[in-house]
Amino acid sequence: MTRFAVDRLVFGPRDVDLSRSPLAGHIDAETYVLGAFNPGMTGLANGNLLLMVRVAEALREPIRGGHVHAIRWDDGGYVLDAWPLDQADTADPRKFTLPGGPWKVMALTSLSWLLPVEMSGDGLEVVAVHYDRAIAPAGPWQCYGLEDARISRIGGAYWMTTCSVSPERHSTTLYRSANALDWTFEGIVLDHQNKDMLIFEGLIDGQYWAQTRPLGDLYFAYPPGSEWRAGPSINLATSPDGLHWKPHLMPGLRPHAATAHTARMGGGTPPMLTQIDGQRGWLTLWHGVEPKEIVGIYRTYWSLLDPDQPWKALRTEHAPLLEPAPQLTRPLEDLLYVRDVVFTTGIADAGDHWIVASVQRGACRGADYRPLGHQRGQGGRHHRAMRQGRLRADHEDPRSNAERAAGRRTQPRPEAAPPSGSGARGAQRLHRSRQGLAWADLRSRGGQVVQVDRHARTRRTEGQGLHLVLLPRAALDAGAVTVRSALHLAGTYRRRVNASLARVWENVLDWEHLAHLHAASFSECVLLESGPWGWRVALRPKGGKPQQVELRADRQAGRYTTTTIEGPGAGAEIRTALTPESAERVDVTVEFHLPEARPERLAALGEAYLANYAGLWDEDEAMMQARERTLARRRTPDRTTPPLDLGEERAVRGALPVAFELGGAPFRLVDLDGALVAHSTTCPHWLGPLGDAPVIAGEVRCPWHGYRFEVAGGACRAHPELRLAPAPAIRIDGGHVVAAWS
Predict the structure, then answer these.
(1) CB-based contacts of 480-485 (< 8 A; 24+ apart in sequence)
(2) What span, in angstroms and rounded, lies between the C-alpha atoms of 411 and 406?
(3) Which of 71, 282, 342, 415 has a CB 3.0–4.6 Å from the CB of 466, allowing a cystine?
């Protein structure tokens, strides 16, 4: 068994606060966390890691009154379905089967939702648990939950596949995000019974590629003597846009007849372009299952796929990379219901190594591994723990651990020399390379500025890495790195923002609010590109000509630069420094560097910039403070609250719209085509205020980001994953208007 320098649990079911679960207050039954597991993983712009943890929330007493119960999403809420116990087979603790004639019919003992857990850059500490960004069922196509996220980064954007479960289909659904926290639902991309869709982190001949795993009960035999054995395999699909997928003609990874560990197999981590022992290809980690009892023994293996023809495996290791480690989960022994499982689900680039997320018997685990070059793992095991493993290069890195962590995610890293490695399975070398990512001329890493030679990649040889020049940060003025000599300081704007640093950075990286919160300044904003580095947009000032504007952030240094690339003011650079004064206040310093040398003109432009930025920051600060207040008091409405008499109907209609609270949540009563209808006044996107939004064509629009929601039902057509919180029903009782939970 592979040994790791670091190997411990980092997140488990006891770390989940069910009072903040999407199910809280929706069902009249006690629930518990059956598992916190199968996390998709990626790196955030702030240098931290994000785990999108699958939380399986189950009924504490599923069997009552001679029936076994299951949780199901239904039209914005959750209900309990009861099945006669004498008809159910409950041998597998994860599910129960029901009579279905010629078909196998299954129901789950839990409902799963996705919880974003932010970890430190080394993956060992929980930084924040983003309950407000949890992804829960939002439609009938996932009424039995959504499971098993896999996250890929392509061209600066985040792509996340999930399994959505319903009676009609077991489908793969796609979400996309610019920051890995705010996700846009893109729809179903693979239909019935596909699991573990893994999108390659880079394009091949301009096409998106993905590994898929169709499920089934019938497989045709290979010819006698074949090296392959019939059974589930890891297939391939291609797409021109990442949304419309076509199965590839050639098979992918297939179960090998000579091994017992591929009775079942499935994809683990999104393929990453790299180099091992001088061979360049796509590194993919996958799980193989050896038959044992009901669940089997899950282990993690790896293959290297051809860089241009990924249906060809250049190398496959039949010795396991990760095996179950029962000693890690002894503290959770009372919670475990599956054994012998390690299931790898995420991978993130950490410069001189990879960080790998796995599931260790239902929790999250971590370890330090040497033979496979630069890799570091973090994860958990099938239903309750997360495991962290480090696959580190043997060559010396002059930076300290703290320096590596500080600079890990500021920008995409330059390639490093292929390290030599030795370990339990002999000498191996793995060199990290990335496809489809933009390389910056200057980037920050661990307190230094790194100047990258773009062309060095084509000159790389064994033992020789990317040529770069390291310039000590202390030897350079921070402004000299980004501001050209042709620019002149037009003015400096300073203010203290009464909001936390987290809210300020959240606002800085949010391009979407520009044309809505700042509607008086900008009439249109279209995203061109985004990533951990920042964003680039096509922006039209109010009454002005189009511009192309780019924002690049250095969160470690507490700075960001906004550059006008095209259009009026092209070449201008606005440099902003953020200095936390306290936990709730941040000092902001903004310098306006313009391509204008005439003193009079420079002074006039400086005054205009100062006035404009004062107004923009006023609007930003108000939004940040409102969001902070709403986050602090946000809770699930108490649906046991008695009905509320809003008053005599004639008086109420004369006072519309009418704001009221019920069960601790805010609502507004409006007239919709003659009917009195209540709707939530909190936008589900960023908790924006809808209480003053006019009703236009049956919809309300959030003033922060422009998201529109139907008053009746709460649906958002442009973002179907978002929906207003359920509102109380309105009825007329004895001439009075009454709001009540139906």
Answers:
(1) 481/442, 481/449, 482/442, 482/561, 482/573, 482/575, 483/573, 483/575, 483/593, 484/571, 484/573
(2) 11
(3) 415
- For 458, phi then psi, to 5°, come to -75, -10
Give the type of residue at 243: L
Distance CA(71)–CA(576), nearest Å, equals: 49
Query: Which 8-state DSSP code applies to residue 680?
Result: E
Backbone dihedral angles phi then psi of residue 407, each to the nearest 5 degrees: -100, 10
N residues, the chain = 742
Helices 599-633/501-508 angle, 10° precision: 120
Euclidean distance between CA atoms 43 and 157, whole angstroms:
11
pTM of the model: 0.53
Asked if 474 contacts 192 with a C-beta cutoff of 8 angstroms, the reply is: no
Cα gap 592→573, rounded to integer Å: 6
Query: Looking up tokens 């006008």, which residue turns up?
Result: 564
Q: How many CB atoms lie within 10 A of CB 641?
A: 16
- Phi-psi sector, 455: left (phi>0), alpha (psi -120 to 50), beta: alpha
Query: Confidence band (pLDDT; 50, 70, 90) for 348?
Result: confident
711-718: average pLDDT? 92
Whether residue 741 contacts residue 639, with contact meaning beta carbons closer than 8 Å, is answered with yes
Strands 699-701 and 708-710: what pairing?
antiparallel
3-state SS class at 132: helix
Residue with tokens 């029962």: 326
Q: Identify the CA nearest to 401 among candidates 124, 24, 79, 678.
A: 124
Q: Residue 612 is encoded by which pair of tokens?
A: 């404009």
CA dihedral 128, 131, 137, 138 (to 10 degrees): -110
The values of phi and psi at residue 654, to 5°, are -75, -15
E-strand ranges in 555-624 read 559-566, 573-582, 585-594
Whether 166 contacts 157, CB under 8 Å: no
- For 715, the enclosing helix (H) or strand (E) is none
Neighbour count for residue 448 (Cβ, 10 Å)? 18
Strands (E), 675-740: 675-680, 699-701, 708-710, 729-733, 736-740
The C-alpha atoms of residue 38 and residue 345 are separated, in whole angstroms, by 6
Tokens encoding 112:
């799963």
141-169 pLDDT, tens per residue?
A: 999 999 999 999 887 789 999 999 999 88
Three-class SS of residue 624?
A: helix
* Structural tokens at position 241: 């846009």
- Strand locations in 93-169, DSSP E? 95-98, 105-108, 110-119, 126-129, 146-154, 157-165
| Contacts with 324 (C-beta within 8 Å, 6 or more apart), sequence order | 297, 298, 299, 339, 340, 341, 342, 360, 361, 381
207-218 per-position pLDDT tens digit: 999 999 887 778
Q: Element (H or E) spanning 93, and its range?
A: none
